[in-house]
Structure formats: structure tokens, C-alpha cells
Task: inverse folding
């Protein structure tokens, strides 16, 4: 496909071209990224080293933190470096790799959130059968399927990107490579590709969000038969999950379920789900979870 393209590299405009605003962007993004990295690495280390956090929910939380870390790392470091350059360029191959990694770990996060909702459903609605259903082996198979499904989704994105011919402008009005900004540069009719994009990424985001909201509605409805203490603990867990789901899926649905048109707010919204949500996840899960906090205290004492 590269032989049919005249474009060998793309120019990334970033969030802003103003020198002063670039400095602000670097500081804010660096703080967000370091905070995300610290929080998620701490969760990963705590879960790996603590025997008390061996239940399936923490197994899924481990993979959520891992996907968050890789998701932001596929974007933030290059974004920080590009802010220091007068003209930030990315080669065609690097752009395709970024599309793959971004969608791979973003899709993985979606699947892990679904698995975490399923885990909470079994724990609250079928507590007597929880350990039988959510065995370590079964959870391992579910996570493996999530990784494979994410790979299939990302390969689909790569196939769509490589099917686009680029023969003229190479300026991407964004701070990273994604399929939608690339559609605006293609020198052919992109209606079919955009339709496939919406039916792929858009459908995954929308269907997953609806499924998660229905599952949590069922869980919350089933809590009416639980004790006051059981309600409090289950509500605390479910509310934290719902907050994560809304913060992550809201911007994604806005970006990927509409035609390939760009709005001034698109880049700021992308910052929220590429850096903001991965930063909020460890805060939400640690501040609202006493078991994780206690395990972190023990790890710190060591």
C-alpha cells in the first residue's frame, strides 16, 4: 500500500501552535502522565505482591491498570517531545503503529471493564456460586479472549488505514495518529471506510456502554434484598465502576459514532480519555477500596 502513496510522513499540529500555550501543555500533560504512571504502576505492584488481593476483581483490576498504562504511553511521551519541536513529524510506519497500539489498549480497556461488570454481577447476584463460576482458570481465559479480541479490532483499524491513499496534504490537525484525522487527508472517497469505522469502533463503544449500564442497573436492582452492610459495600464498588465507565465511554462515543468531521473540541475531548481517565482510574479504585489501601500500606511498610 505504501507504493501507492506519495506521503511518507505526517505533520502533527498538536493541541496548539502558540509557543506559550505549548509550554503549558507540556507541564499539564507531563503531570497527568506521571500521575497516571505512578498510580497504575502502584496498583500493578500492589496486586502482584499482595496475597490478600487474589480475588478475580483484582485480577481484572491488574489488567485494567496495565491497559491504562500502555494506552496513555502510546500517546503522551511523543506528545510531550513533539511540543518542543517547531515541526512535529511522524513517519507513515510510526503513524500506523500508533493507530494499532492506541486502539489495541483502548479496546482492551473496554473488554476489561465488561469483565469487571460481569464479575460484580456474579458476586452480588449469585454469591453462593461465585468461586465456582469465577475460577482463576476461567478468568484467565476471559482475559486472554479480551487480548485476542483487542488485537482483531486493532488489525481491522490497520487494514482500514492502509486502504486509504495519501497523495497530497500531510498535515494532521491532531496530536496523535488516529483513523478519523487520516480520513480527512485521503485523496479518495472515504464514505465506505468511515462507515466501517463507525460500525467497528463506534459500535464497540456504544454497545459496550449500553451493556454495562444495563448490567449495573440489574446489579443495583438486586441489592434491595441485601443487608445494609452488603448494600453499602456493593454500592461503593459499583458506583466507582460506573464513574469509570461514564468518564471513558462518553468521549469515545462522541468521537467514534459520527461522520469524519472535526470539531475544535475534539482534541480536548481526546485528552480527557487518553490521559484523564487513566489518571482517574487508580484514584477511584484506591480511594473507594479499603482492601487496596490496606495492601498498599503493607507494601509501603516493607
Result:
Amino acid at each position: 500500500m505504501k507504493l501507492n502513496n506519495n506521503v511518507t510522513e505526517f505533520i502533527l499540529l498538536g493541541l496548539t501552535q502558540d509557543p506559550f500555550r505549548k509550554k503549558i501543555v507540556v507541564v499539564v500533560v507531563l503531570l497527568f502522565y506521571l500521575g497516571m504512571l505512578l498510580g497504575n504502576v502502584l496498583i500493578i505492584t500492589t496486586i502482584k505482591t499482595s496475597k490478600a488481593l487474589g480475588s478475580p476483581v483484582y485480577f481484572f483490576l491488574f489488567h485494567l491498570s496495565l491497559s491504562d498504562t500502555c494506552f496513555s504511553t502510546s500517546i503522551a511521551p511523543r506528545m510531550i517531545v513533539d511540543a518542543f519541536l517547531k515541526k512535529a513529524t511522524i513517519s507513515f510506519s510510526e503513524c500506523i503503529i500508533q493507530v494499532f497500539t492506541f486502539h489495541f489498549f483502548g479496546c482492551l480497556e473496554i473488554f476489561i471493564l465488561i469483565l469487571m461488570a460481569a464479575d460484580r454481577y456474579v458476586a452480588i447476584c449469585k454469591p453462593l456460586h461465585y468461586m465456582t463460576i469465577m475460577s482463576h482458570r476461567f478468568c484467565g481465559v476471559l482475559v486472554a479472549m479480551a487480548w485476542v479480541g483487542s488485537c482483531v479490532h486493532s488489525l481491522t483499524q490497520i487494514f482500514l488505514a492502509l486502504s486509504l491513499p495519501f497523495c497530497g496534504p500531510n498535515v494532521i490537525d491532531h496530536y496523535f495518529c488516529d483513523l478519523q484525522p487520516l480520513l480527512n487527508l485521503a485523496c479518495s472517497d472515504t464514505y465506505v471506510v468511515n462507515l466501517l469505522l463507525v460500525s467497528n469502533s463506534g459500535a464497540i463503544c456504544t454497545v459496550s456502554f449500553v451493556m454495562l449500564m444495563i448490567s449495573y442497573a440489574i446489579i443495583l436492582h438486586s441489592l434491595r434484598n441485601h443487608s445494609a452492610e452488603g448494600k453499602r459495600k456493593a454500592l461503593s464498588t459499583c458506583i466507582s465502576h460506573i464513574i469509570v465507565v461514564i468518564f471513558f465511554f462518553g468521549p469515545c462515543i462522541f468521537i467514534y459514532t459520527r461522520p469524519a468531521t472535526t470539531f475544535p473540541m475534539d482534541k480536548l475531548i481526546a485528552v480527557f480519555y487518553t490521559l484523564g481517565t487513566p489518571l482517574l482510574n487508580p484514584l477511584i479504585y484506591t480511594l473507594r477500596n479499603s482492601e487496596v489501601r490496606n495492601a498498599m500500606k503493607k507494601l509501603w511498610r516493607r
About this structure: The radius of gyration is 21 Å. The mean pLDDT is 84. The CA atoms of residues 160 and 193 lie 6 Å apart. The first strand starts at residue 9 and ends at 12.
